[in-house]
Amino acid sequence: GGLGDVLGGLPPAMAANGHRVMTVSPRYDQYKDAWDTSVLVELEVDGRIETVRFFHCYQRGVHRVFVDPPSFLERVWGKTGSKIYGPRAGVDYRDNQLRFSLLCQAALEAPRVLNLNSNEYFSGPYGEDVVFIANDWHTALLPCYLKTIYKPEGIYQTAKVAFCIHNIAYQGRFPFSDFSLLDLPDQLKGSFDFIDGYNKPVKGRKVNWMKAGILESDRVVTVSPYYAQELVSGEDKGVELDNIIRKTGITGIVNGMDVQEWNPTRDKYLDVKYDETTVLDAKPLLKEVLQAEVGLPVDRNIPVIGFIGRLEE
């Protein structure tokens, strides 16, 4: 979806501007080009130590890092039937909070422990002078761990966190008693504390990961100026976090387009390639191919309108 598109296209654009860029994602598959770095870190979740290893590939100037506790890979049923968040729609895996806690902790470790030398301008670990861009609720513990574990130890003193909201409807709401699973001090309870009118997953008080991510980050951003306005326009559009976002403020930055991937002069999915000089000849031909493929009447004079949006209840 949109988040996948952003993580595909934004990091190479940032690298092209001269930044040193790393993405950190769960290792949900045996990605053929991502190699085991043999770097291991021990992280604590729910009172036990988990050993996490990092896989890595370097593409278009970006270090792509994949976090590999077994709990990510073993939940997914092959490349096509993958179930990343739960066994079926609307149901969470029981250990989702522990899995995403590990992701957040691993993302804080990666810049410090990975010795990466893929680029002639940058070498070695990233060090501590970094900006973390935390995307959606799954990454909301990152600013919390940064503030309560790392900074008090004198680590990441200058690091900042921008929290990016791609879809406000998914917030990571869990029973309030689950706060103890997160290995965070009681001083952060208020940032997670949330009461809504729903009985899922439990009635009454809940923890709300996204609420904490918004409150504990240095900046809150979202995927367009219009969506930023929408999120503070009322309880329904802000899905009950509108008052929190009004408190912190939010900046809308339009999602861009990956102009290397979406380049009609060399797009492998186009039967006829084109540029600005041949577009008027090529597009009617491509329209006819599309009409034939999907069973529409083949007529180059009929408009065909494409819509990209969310199919959801």
UniProtKB/TrEMBL annotation:
What biological-process GO terms show up in the record?
A: starch biosynthetic process
Starch synthase catalytic domain sequence ranges: 1-247
Concerning SUPFAM superfamilies, the annotation shows: UDP-Glycosyltransferase/glycogen phosphorylase (SSF53756)
Q: In which pathway does it act?
A: Glycan biosynthesis; starch biosynthesis
Q: Provide an example Pfam family for this protein.
A: Glyco_transf_5
Q: Which UniProt keywords apply?
A: Glycosyltransferase, Starch biosynthesis, Transferase
Q: Could you give a GO molecular-function term held by this entry?
A: glycosyltransferase activity
PANTHER family reported for this sequence? GRANULE-BOUND STARCH SYNTHASE 1, CHLOROPLASTIC/AMYLOPLASTIC, GRANULE-BOUND STARCH SYNTHASE 1, CHLOROPLASTIC_AMYLOPLASTIC
- The identity of this protein, by name, is Granule-bound starch synthase
Q: Which organism is it from?
A: Oemleria cerasiformis (Indian plum)
